[in-house]
Amino acid sequence: MSKKYKVADIDRFEGDKSRVLVDVDGIEVAVFRIDEEFYAVGNFCVHQGGPLCEGGVSGRITASDDGWEWNYDEEEKYVHCPWHGWIFDITTGKNVDADQFRVPTYDVEVEDGEVFVRR
Amino acid sequence: MASTEAQKRLTVGDLTIADVDSHVHFDMLEDLGPYMEEKHSGIRKLIEYTRDPHREIYSAFRATPAWFQTLRHDEYDEHNPHQDALETTTVEQKLEMMNEYGIDYSILGTGPARLASVNHDPTAVALAEAYNSFVLDTLAGVDDRIKSTIIVPPQKPQAGAEEIDRVADEDAIVGVQLPGVGLIPPAGHPWYDPIFEAAEDNDLPILMHSGNGAAWSVFPVQRYWAETFVEDHAFTFPVEPMWHLMSMIFRGLPERFPGLEFIFQESGAEWLGWIMGRMDDHYMMSSQEVPMLTKLPSEYIREKFYFGTQPIGHRARAQDTASLLQLAGGADTVMFSTDHPHPDFDPPADILNTIQGSLDEETVRGIMGETALDVFGIS
Hints:
heterodimer, A: 119 residues, mainly beta, Rieske Iron-sulfur Protein, four-stranded antiparallel sheet, B: alpha/beta, TIM Barrel, 41% helix, globular
């Protein structure tokens, strides 16, 4: 049975792509607010232990099949580890370049203006 | 190699950790300008006029912006180690990082690493002199855990030799940077002999640090056809030192200067075992072309050459990386390095965890710091 931990009042999330870092029972977790949705990701990069969720948030650069059109896809929600730039999908915790790497994600609940994670 | 006995798991705190490649940021004009002597005031004026020092003082170019995934500009920039780089300008800031990661000693450099790409030779000399004076005044001797290197201008080796003589008595100066990026002719050429002679006379090792932006002069075709930063950067850092290593060994540098030791920084070391085998094979087949050599290339390398671990390659199995470092010579040749605070730095715990369990404790201790203490005369 998971437990519910309060992260912050919702007004701590100021604007799109904002985030709050919080200690959840000894585990550092970042809660992101992107496009009015909330996502929680463990703040630890599986590469060399960097503070993953303190890096930049981005979409994805994609190239067309023939390589002549390069688009920036704002729909994707990625975080880049500030140490070495490894990229993880905020919504799934999966590394976007190699399937074998993944960081934990947590369910987020919003109730009465308060944000919680379940762990 | 792998021990059959169960080993105690080591932590960074159990070992002496020495980082043989650490950097502090400085600004060419603001920081070095005040250290340019009056005889170089005309150079200072030239630098004041530049709008883009990378292209108007140095000749450095990139295919696309560096470290696009790491060097981002948003509200979290303060956590970015490269942003730290811009702020790591003092020994105190460096010590704070060392304490955080458990590093006991740091070898600071490289100074103006793109010095070899400076077209205007008097500017190269003035920059080297100013940087060395800046090091003496602000970095060297502030704390016993911080050791520094000076840099010499390859454009005028005699000026480099005079710089070595000027600073060699300072205890905190432990080595001489011969710019390892964009260096033409290659490092074994007698052109540089005045530098090597002065370093040997003063018992200081030579360091060569790999680079990217200024490597175009060594690899003009490769650079021209590299479409992206990643294509260019992944290639130049290990390959330029391979070229210099060939030159240094096959032109007999260790025979000409038997007292000298050489450290390659940010070249990585995993390729070394392969290239030692290749050089030995060629030597056995062609030794009459290089009669000044008295032993196998790999023997010179194991005795006189050292390589920083960073950037450690990414592999699915840590044991494979440990094996490659063992083949590279283990603690005879390999020394831990971070490259802090640049975006591809390696923390000591990661390297320790990669090699322990595969290499014996003596080798692990050597790689993580004890070899470096010996090479740089730190006690």
